[in-house]
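User: Sorry, folds how?
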Amino acid sequence: MGITAIENIDALVVVEPGTRTSQVALSGDGVRVVVFAFDAGAELTEHTAPGPIVVQALEGHLTFTAEGITKHLRPGGILHLDARIPHSVRAVEPSKMILMLLRKAPERAPEITVPAGITG
């Protein structure tokens, strides 16, 4: 069993003038977490993710658009999107967000328990 803790994830990135920056915060069993910083007007143009995602705003104001629907994300706001749905993100003001890329954990073979007294 592994455990990873990050004390202050938003400290991993700094809003830089005119651009977007990102940093992988952790990669573990079934999840990869990336923290982003956007200056006002910076964006992630339309793209897709291979698995489902969860996005949470940490600072500022972001717009998240998918399937013709735009949602506004502010600190504490969170959203989920299914795999392979085209989407984009744009910062209305200097902002930070967490992106959690989810993937199915590899299947493990079931353990076989042999009752006491039975031999093979």
In short: Strands lie at 20-28, 31-38, 43-47, 53-59, 62-66, 69-73, 78-81, 87-91, 95-102. The chain has a mean pLDDT of 91. The two ends are 31 Å apart (CA to CA). The chain is about 0% helix and 45% strand.
